[in-house]
Design a protein that fits this description.
Shape: elongated
Strand content: 25-35%
Distance between the termini: 77 Å
Radius of gyration: 21 Å
CATH superfamily: Pleckstrin-homology domain (PH domain)/Phosphotyrosine-binding domain (PTB)
Structural class: alpha+beta
Order of helices and strands: HEEEEEEEEEH
Largest sheet: 7 strands, antiparallel
Strand order of the largest sheet: 4-3-2-1-9-8-5
CATH architecture: Roll
Length: 152
């Protein structure tokens, strides 16, 4: 009797593990598909882009404080501006390169961290104030270099 119960419990655990692995794998596949589609759209809209990041993780806009949505999106560097379009929310950030004051690499932004350096861009707003945004990107040093080169 104890053996039958332990076999049933083991089968249940194995079944649950397989179920969650399939669900997680499916979610990862969907996210990758969305990323590829969004990247293709961005490349079509900005054919002369210097750089495109398919899955930049947005950490927010400093002026909006800590209570804001964070999420993945497309980060595009053109000859004139830095553009971010969030995948799921209707959020777009456009920063003219001439308004960028500095490019920094802090470990956190607005109290949020991934324990890896972030791409932080400090810029002058159209109203004349200062604001900042940050993303987690792959090849951070490449992004910093290319933004600074584009600003010259």
């Amino acid at each position: 009797m104890d053996t039958a119960l332990s076999n049933s419990a083991l089968m249940l655990l194995v079944g649950l593990a397989v179920f969650f692995a399939v669900v997680f794998g499916g979610a990862v596949a969907v996210v990758r598909y969305i990323g590829r589609q969004k990247e293709a759209g961005a490349r079509a809209r900005y054919p002369r882009a210097r750089r495109v990041e398919r899955a930049a993780n947005f950490f927010g806009r400093e002026s909006r404080g800590v209570m804001q949505m964070r999420g993945n999106g497309i980060l595009v560097l053109t000859d004139a501006e830095l553009i971010f379009e969030m995948w799921l929310w209707n959020t777009e950030v456009r920063i003219p390169l001439r308004s960028i004051q500095s490019v920094e690499t802090p470990l956190s932004f607005l109290g949020k961290s991934r324990l890896t350096p972030l791409l932080k861009v400090v810029y002058t707003t159209p109203e004349g104030g200062t604001d900042a945004v940050a993303w987690q990107v792959s090849d951070l040093s490449g992004w910093v270099r290319q933004i600074n080169e584009a600003r010259v």
